[in-house]
Please model this.
Amino acid sequence: MLLFCPVCSNALTVSLAPATEEDPEGQNRLECRTCPYEYLINDMLYERKTMKRKEVDDVLGGKDAWANADKTESM
Model:
């Protein structure tokens, strides 16, 4: 999942926020490296996308593709 900064549209990175009295170990955050935007991550973030499969065509055109092909004799 790739998220972008709402201020400057650059990609956000995950980093550790400084420790506070409430959270002495620190907390994960999404931060922008070019502007002061940051978003503290309190819950799990995930995004599920279902991709649409493409229809597969015959690579060689099926059985009729060989109808006009050159033929040689074999032993």
User: Anything to note?
Assistant: The mean pLDDT is 86. The CA atoms of residues 4 and 10 lie 5 Å apart.
